[in-house]
Amino acid sequence: MDPATDYLYRGTTVGWIGTRSNQFLPMTCTSTDPLVATYFALECLFHGHSVVQFIERSSVEQFIGESNPFDAIESAVNLKRKPLEISEHVIHLINVDEARKILLGLGFEQVPYQIYGKSVLNDELKLSFNQGYRLTASQKREFNRLAFEVRS
Question: Which of 30, 34, 49, 64 has its CA 20 to 30 A from that of 13?
Answer without folding.
Answer: 64
